[in-house]
Design goal:
Structural class: alpha+beta
Helix content: 10-25%
Shape: rod-shaped
Number of helices: 6
Oligomer: single chain
CATH superfamily of the largest domain: RNA polymerase II/Efflux pump adaptor protein, barrel-sandwich hybrid domain
Amino acid sequence: MKKRLIDLLIVFLIGTIIGLGIFYREYLSTALNLFKKEEVSPRTGKKVQFYRHPMNPTVTSPTPKKDEMGMDYIPVYEEAGVSEESPGTVVISPEKIQKTGVKSEEVIKRTLRRTIRTVGRVDHDEARVYDINTKIGGWVEKLYVNRTDQMVHPGEKLLEIYSPDLVSAQEEFLLAFSAIEKMKDSPYPEVKGGAESLLEGARQRLKYLDISDDQIKRLGEDGKITRTMTIYAPVHGIVTEKMVNEGMKIEPGEMLYKIIDHSVVWVYGEVYEYELPFIKIGQKARIIPSYTPAKEYTASINNIYTHFGTVRHEAESKMEESRTAKIRFELHNPEHKLKLGMYVNVELAVDVATNALSVPDSSVIDTGTRQVVIVDRGDGRFEPRDVKVGAQADGYYQILSGVKEGEKVVTSANFLIDSESSFRAALQGMKGH
C-alpha cells in the first residue's frame, strides 16, 4: 500500500511539472513578449506586424509560434499592411511591383468607337421595278424576249401584238386625217373646225393605246395601217418574270413581263435592340461580299425601319417577332456583280461615347454585382475603388463615376493586388477579436 501511494505521488508531481511547463510556454512567454520591443526582420529591416498560420490565413498570432504540424507561422511585414489613408489600401515595395509585373495607365478622355458587324442581304430597289402590260386586248404575234433573266435596254423590242381595236383606231385616224386635208380649203370655218376636232380625237385615242407621237406621225405620212403594235422596253434591266407566249390571247391590263433595274440595289441588314441608339441615317458602312473579301463597297444608311422584324418557324408554321431592327443601304451596282438574294458582310463604325472618361477594360474587375479598379497612388500605394462603368468599345470602358481624369489605374496584376487588399481588409476587421 505504501509503495502504491509513492507511485501515485510521483505521477502527480510529474503531471504538475508538465502542466507548469505548458502554462509558462503558452501564457507567460506571450505576456513577456507584450513588453518586448517590436520585432524587426534582420534580412529586410522591416517591422513584423503579426504572424499568419501557414495553412489557414484567418488564424494569426502576435508572436512567433508553430502550428499543429510543427510548421512556423509566416511573418507579415509592415509593407503589406493597411494604409491609414483609406480602407483596403495596399503598400507594395518596388521590388515586388517589378516581380509581379504591375503596370498602370492614366485615366484620360477619349472618343470610344465600336464596329457593329452584321450580315446583309441584297435585294432590288422597289422604285426600279417595272410591270409591262398593254391597254388593248389581242393576240401575241411575235416574242422578241422569250426567256427570263434576259438583259434588255430602253427601246428594245419585247413583243408584237395584233389587236382589232388598234386597227380600227388607226383607220379612224386616217379617215380624220384625209378629211382635214379635204376641208382645209373649205370656206366654212365650222366644217374645218369639226374635221380638226375629229383628227385630234383620233390622235388622242392612239396615244391612249400607247402609240408614240413618232408612230402617229409616220401613220399620217405613209397612210399605211400597222397590223400589229410593238411593245418596247422602257428601262434598262433584267426580265425576272415572263407571263406570255407566242399566240397567246391577252386582255387589257394583263401583265406580260416584270423588269427590274439592278444598276442600283438595296442591302438589308439587321441590328440588335441594344445597338439601335448608335445607328443613324446617313452613317457609312463597309459592305464586303462573302465570295470576294478583296472587293469592298461603301454605302450609307438611307432607312431605319420603325418596327422589329418577324421570323417564320416552318416546323411550327407560325410567325414570331425577332429582337432585331432592319436597316437599309442603297448601293450602286453598274456591273451587276451583286446578285439579288446574295449575302454580304456589313461593318458599321459607330461612336458610342464622345469625350468620355475611360480606362482600359483590363483594369476593371467585374464581380457581377460591382466593378472595381485599383488606383495607383504612387510610392507603392494601391487603393481599390468602386466605379460605375458605361459603354465599352475599342478595349476601353467609359467611367461614369469613381475615378478622376489624371489618376492612374492598374492594368496588369490588378487581381493580385485586389486579393491582397481584400485579405488585409478582412484581417483589419478581425484585429479587435
